[in-house]
Amino acid sequence: MVKTQYNEQHMGAAYGPYGQMTQAPQAETMRIDDVIVRTVALVAATFIAALLTYGMVADGIANSDADAIGTAMMLGTIGAVVGLGIMIFSMFKPVTNPFVAFLYAIGQGLLLGGVSAVFEQQWPGIVVNALLATILVFGAMLALYKFRILKNSPMFTKVIVGAGIGIFLLSMANLLFSAFGVDLGLFAGPGESVSALQWIIAIGITLWAAFSFILDFDMIEYSAQHGAPKKYAWAGAFGLTAGLIFLYWNLLRLLSYFQGD
Questions:
Q1: CA-to-CA distance for 56 and 86, rounded, in angstroms?
Q2: Cβ atoms 3, 187 nearer than 8 A
Q3: Taking CA 215 as the corner, what is the angle to CA 227 and CA 26, rounded to the nearest 5 degrees?
Q4: Measured between alpha carbons, how far is residue 119 from residues 6, 57, 195, 197, 256 in Å?
Q5: 3-state secondary structure string, 177-213?
Q6: What span, in angstroms and rounded, lies between the C-alpha atoms of 255 and 55?
Q7: Are the C-beta atoms of residues 195 and 185 closer than 8 Å to each other?
Q8: Is a pLDDT exceeding 60 seen at residue 1?
Q9: Residue 132: exposed, middle, or buried by beta-carbon count in 10 A (0-12, 13-18, 19+)?
Q10: pLDDT digits (tens, 9 = 90+) for 27-69
């Protein structure tokens, strides 16, 4: 997930089939507040983990400490592998285990922090801008859903899920070819000129990341209204956290394209 850092996120069917979510609960049922609390906890874990590797890389660059940078990148690589594994797992089964959800959040945080520090070194201020943009886009999509300006529908779901599968396969192909030293030219690296195709891909994936929140909001609302077991609040929180991380990666890359030009 190096650019798999960017594109591996948020591909899983985080919640499972609607029917699976609304079986008669044996105990408490989930509420939207439960999802909010768990999402805040997962985002906080991601942020704390990111601060660790961000500090290591930033200090390593400032002090020419190759060992610190190497350690941070090793932690980030482990986080990327763990995150990819959990994301693939989530395609087949909702993530309702808090340990797995936190493992994903921390792993992605370790990756996010180190890579963000590298971007920040090259383009000062880009990390703050990407974070603010992520918050603003998420808030805008929530408002559009809340006021029913954007609503889910069978066709909307098909388009988002189909595009998500395509993005995932594209990411995996890019990762596989990169492992053998082949550059497909799909994503521009730091300092490289950006082609028209790379701009189209970057903008398209970022838009997909934003609009995919509509599915998350709809699933959470539907599940809460129809008495899904409380454990599925973790599935909702996992989906939102993965979506926020994925959106951040894409906004960070998109902003770097603007800086590069």
A1: 25
A2: yes
A3: 15
A4: 13, 11, 20, 22, 8
A5: HHHCCCCCCCCCCCCCCCCHHHHHHHHHHHHHHHHHH
A6: 22
A7: yes
A8: no
A9: exposed
A10: 689 999 999 999 999 999 999 999 999 999 999 999 999 999 9
Task: Give me the residue label for tokens 């906004």.
Answer: 251
pTM value?
0.88
- CA 160, chain centre distance (Å): 15
35 closest CA partner among 86, 132, 101, 111: 101
For the chain, the residue count is 261
pLDDT, tens digit, for every residue of 158-210? Answer: 999 999 999 999 999 998 998 898 989 999 877 788 999 999 999 999 999 99
**Tokens 């070194």 found at:** 121
HSE-CB of 25 using CA atoms within 13 angstroms? 17
- Please provide the distance, in angstroms rounded to a whole number, between the alpha carbons at the two ends of the chain: 25
Please say whether the beta carbons of 109 and 79 come within 8 A: yes
For 229, phi and psi rounded to 5 degrees? -55, 150
